Prior knowledge:
Elements: E1 2-9, E2 16-24, H1 29-41, E3 45-49, H2 58-67, E4 71-76, H3 78-81, H4 84-99, E5 105-110, E6 126-127, H5 132-145, H6 156-169, E7 174-181, E8 184-195, E9 201-211, H7 220-231, E10 238-244, H8 250-256, E11 262-264, H9 266-274, H10 277-284
Parallel strand pairs: 2-4, 4-5, 5-6, 9-10, 10-11
Antiparallel strand pairs: 1-2, 1-3, 7-8, 8-9
Amino acid sequence: xxxxxxxxxxxDGTKKSPEIFLSYAAQDLPIAQLLAMRLxxxxxxxxxxxxxxxxxxxxxxxxxxxxxxxxxxxxCSEAAWRSSEFAxxxxxxNELREFADRDITLIPIRLDNASxxxxxANLQYLDLRTDPLGAIDTLVQLLxxxxxxxxxxxxxxxxxxxxxxxLIDLGSxxxxxxxxxxxxxxxxxxxxxxxxxFGARKTENWIVEVKHYxxxxxxxxxxxEILGRAARFGQTxxxxxxxxxxxxxxxxxxxxxxxxxxLVEGVELKRILLTRPHLIAKHLGLSGK
Length: 289
């Protein structure tokens, strides 16, 4: 197991952009090299670290690379599943995702029919199984255009419009905006279809609240207010989600740890949008060219 560390800069080299770490099994080196080459061809500087210097502590070196990364890309395959180093990197990445203050976006990349590792099973992945070259080009193009998605460029209404279109794109069967339920006004009420473990389809009721923060973090008091509003619905089948452009504090994370609130922070939202370039182009003005 090794990794690619991609240091991205603007064309004039003056503005440093987020950094990318690519984790893969040794058997998947050819596809990792291809991805690195495509990154280089797109104007991104990719350093392929196929080995560590003699005397370097491998675990500490990889941890240091992970902690300095903004994007963590995992090549998931049967070979990766058999790699103890890959499992270690996944564990460290998951800890960073849960507890780090930095924005870290994780993107699984599926190479074969191996399942996505449990910590990331619910993440949207990039599929290289049917058209690897096309998928790699899509990923490189997206990373090149969305080196740093800047939600602060949107005002609150613009951010809410983005979420409106995202909910539709995610497959909402019915979407109501600025809806009043049980005497309370909410940003969105939508219906989604899901499948239970036995294959039966069911319709889920969701209330979605949107909070846009250009710089500050979502406070514990704001979270408590949302949880209080959700509690008034009692034992109903309605589920609650909060989508924010920013991050929450560690105290806020503890506050919702044992609740049913589905939180989508800015980091996860960026990852979701990476696979939806049409929304990026429409709302953030990035064409991917």
